[in-house]
Amino acid sequence: MLLTTQGIVLRGVDYKESDKILTVLTRDGGKLTVRAKGCRRKGSRLAASVQLLAWSDMTLFEYRDRYTLNDAEPLELFWGVRSDVEKVALGSYFAEVTEAVSGEGQADPAVLSLLLNSLYALDKLDRPLPLVKAVFELKLLSLIGYEPLLDACAVCGAVEPEDARLQLAEGMLTCAKCRSGGEGPSVPVSPAVLTAMRRVVYGDPKRLFSFALDEGGQKGFARACERFLMTQLDRSFRTLEFYKTLRVHEDGGAVPPAAPAGET
Ligand SMILES: [Zn+2]
User: Fold this and answer.
1) How far is ligand 1, taken at its centre, from the CA of residue 173, in Å?
2) Cα(193) to centroid of ligand 1, in Å?
3) Separation of 183 CA from ligand 1 center, angstroms?
4) Which of 151, 175, 193, 222 is positioned for an S-S bond with 134, CB 3.0–4.6 A?
5) Please, are residues 150 and 202 in contact by the beta-carbon 8 Å criterion?
């Protein structure tokens, strides 16, 4: 059976002499494992579309729940991401997280759209990378069932909680006077960070990246979203560790290691 759809490559592993096994997030079939035969041969018509983060029109052949890539035509290769080591590291992290939270064969247009919009933001919008990363993390969690309660302090209902913190496990806000000290891990949420988070969670999904934060706000926002994601998903991501080594390098720290193995 043939399936015509669009898909983005979340992961690719070399297989046999000239094939690849791809993890593709497709518009119509959700996350699929797809074999691309002969795609590593010189001159293969599939070569562009089997790269990590390539978004393409795809024709898949399905037989007994196994998919083969019959044909592909690239729609967007995100060259601005590909040509920048930090952006490609961050894009790889987006791909790894998306793969981790997507069920095999379950189409989720909102998650696909968030991934594409986040890559577009890296590619074209010239927004600070920590901001794009935080928006992606917070919106993704909201889409997959971990939407935090940000409208008010969860205990007293104060809409603008004083000295607010996000309780990471519960995904809710508390204000200073409602905390006893016995709560689990939490991060501070300044008024500016709270405004940004509300905008991402409750605002227009088409304007996800169009807001500004000063440097302090950006740091607080980035920290809150990353820690919330780590707490909710309860796992680490090697692409995130790699991205962080690049950021350290930028600040005058260690020399980054080679790209993680198995990435394409
Ligand atoms: Zn309160």
Assistant:
1) 8
2) 17
3) 13
4) 222
5) yes
Say which amino acid occupies 97.
Answer: V
Distance from residue 131's CA to the centre of ligand 1 (Å): 28
264 pLDDT above the threshold of 50: no
pTM for the model? 0.92
- Over the stretch 43-63, which tens digit does the pLDDT of each residue have? 999 999 999 999 999 999 999
For 180, list phi and psi in degrees, rounded to 5.
Answer: -95, -15
Distance 109 CA to ligand 1 centre (A): 36
Backbone torsions φ then ψ of 165, nearest 5 degrees: -130, 150
User: pLDDT category, 252, cuts 50, 70, 90?
Assistant: very low
